[in-house]
Amino acid sequence: MSPSGWSDPIFCPLADSALTIALGERADGETSARVRAVAAGVRAAALAPVRDIAFGYAAVTVWYDALHTSYAAMEALLQPIVAAAAVASPAYAAGREHVIPVQYDGPDLEDVARRTGLAVADVIARHSAPTYTVYFLGFVPGWAYLGELDPALVVPHRTEPRARVPAGSVAIAGAQTGVYPYAIPGGWHLIGRTSVGLFDPMRNPPAVFAAGDRVRFVPGGG
Amino acid sequence: MIEIVAAPPYLTVQDAGRPGHRADGVPGGGAMDRWALAVGNVLVGNGTGAAALEWSLGGGRLRWDRAGVFALAGAGVEAALDGEPVAMHRSYRARAGSELVVGRLVSGRFLYVALAGGIDVAPVLGSRSTYLPARFGGVEGRLLRTGDRLAIGETVEGVVPVGFGAPAELEPRYEQSECGLVRGPHVELFSADAWRVLMETAFGIDPASDRMGYRLVGPAIEHRGDAALPSAPVCPGAVQIPAGGRPIVLMADGPTVGGYPVIAVVCSADLPFIAQRMPGEVVRFRAMTVDESQRALRRRAVAIHTLAHLARGG
């Protein structure tokens, strides 16, 4: 354990062109803040061999030029940067705040109310009450992993995934909530929709949300 | 310009991919077989990552508006330019009005048609690669269709080699069915027995395999614990083991993060061997260290560099 109480970062190769830095095992806000701080630290260091950076709940992965840099050399380059960034996480700057208008009329809204034992109005109130934090983006372009959903709204994934979920669908599944950035198959419960476009490949950056941003869903409009 | 006179069922523009945007959820993408893409490109005097046609699932025809140089690489096909047979991994000059007829794919899954100057579509997020799931890159983010016309980039006169064939030892060959595997971040979640099964099995390629991932058919790979982990970054070549134990090898358009344990990752230099396998064909694995995997990658880069040098007339 480091003095801050965090477990030490664990470095591991992701085959020949990337390495992963594990920063814990939990999918919680504290771990996520630390992950974002480490990712920001690696990005700010602008190391010559680095080709890309991605991160999840509890791990940061760095892609590098393996034709000219060995795994051992890359780990040695990253060690001090990760050590410094990992303890500095509380100072990580908060991102932008987004207010997303949502028309809460999704096809699964009543089903969610039934499964949770809540009134529809209560489901809407509980979903739109928190200010969510964007932990990271991933899986598909523009998909934001948000924390944290009201525990009363936790329901398992749909047993029959839909072949096509429309863009802008606001959905929940397990302990997660999210907005479909474009039409894809999906097994989440659709509780609403928004007309805010979350991903445009012609923009740079292409995604509206960035890790560390805060998101509020506001009923009405959509 | 070249015109797609008769499109095969699958035809897209692909290059070496769009790294740098994974933190926005955008996969690296690009050609499924980077080796074939690079070989095709250097045979026509391009840089290794220039945009080319990625072709699969059947035959088709192309026509040149004005003279150009091209080469076929990757999957083996029967092809003819204005009635004359065209060999794999050799550069040819097409005249204005020339027509290339590609028959069925005889072996392998992805053919690359490399064109001197590269395909000149507008880059999106730094790449010309088509990403079909979100419909961007290439031509309107979609499959190419009969009647589409593609602009070709300018070439410097005299630099483009014609009639040069890759020597056998520098030519992509896909007979090798054994791919190197580097231990993955979650290998500790599996028993030694699971690893042995992974090493000793000839896995089939499931028909439900595409640019996002190839599903492997074989005995289940057993977890010791939970099959769901907090989502973490993954990469092409990552061997994910979902609940049920049927491995999925992530490919070029695979998700940027995943929540299934990654038991191993395929050596980048060997990933083309998997990409080129058809449903029903098999792959085998052997253990590799990170250093061995990187050496294989560097050997591949040197071979491509050597080929580029030879193609330009030594």
Strand residue percentage of chain A = 25-35%
Question: What does the average pLDDT of chain B come to?
Answer: 95
Query: Mean pLDDT of chain A, rounded to whole units?
Result: 92
Question: What's the N-to-C terminus distance of chain B?
Answer: 30 Å
Total beta-strand segments of chain B: 18
**How many strand segments of chain A?**
13
Q: Order of strands across the widest beta sheet of chain A?
A: 1-2-4-3
The biggest sheet of chain A amounts to:
4 strands, antiparallel
Q: Name the chain pair whose interface involves the most residues.
A: A-B, 49 and 47 residues
Q: Topology as H/E string of chain B? A: EEHEEEEEEEEHEEEEEEEHEH
Overall shape of chain A:
elongated
CATH superfamily of the largest domain in chain A: Cyclophilin-like
Question: Which percent band covers the strand fraction of chain B?
Answer: 25-35%
CATH architecture of the largest domain in chain A: Beta Barrel
CATH classification class of the largest domain in chain A: Mainly Beta
Percentage of helical residues of chain A?
A: 10-25%
How is the quaternary structure best described?
Answer: heterodimer
Radius of gyration of chain A: 19 Å
Broad structural category of chain A: alpha+beta
Bulk shape of chain B? globular
Walk me through this protein's architecture:
The complex is a heterodimer of chains A (222) and B (314). Chain A is of the alpha+beta class and 222 residues long. Chain A is 23% helix and 29% strand. Chain A has helices at residues 29-45, 71-87, 109-116, 120-128, and strands at 10-14, 18-22, 50-55, 59-64, 97-102, 132-137, 144-147, 162-165, 169-173, 176-179, 184-186, 189-193, 214-219. A four-stranded antiparallel beta sheet of chain A has the order 1-2-4-3, with helices on one face. In chain A, β3 (50-55) and β4 form a beta hairpin. The mean pLDDT of chain A is 92. With 314 residues, chain B is of the alpha+beta class. Chain B has two domains: 2-172, no CATH class; 178-304, Cyclophilin. Helix content of chain B is 15%, strand content 31%. Chain B has four helices and 18 strands. Chain B has helices at 34-43, 192-200, 271-275, 290-311, and strands spanning 2-6, 10-14, 52-56, 60-64, 68-81, 84-86, 91-94, 99-115, 149-150, 178-183, 203-205, 213-217, 232-233, 238-240, 248-250, 257-258, 262-266, 282-288. In chain B, a hairpin with a 7-residue loop joins β14 (238-240) and β15 (248-250). The longest helix of chain B is centred in the C-terminal third of the chain and has 22 residues, at 290-311. In chain B, 54% of the residues are buried.
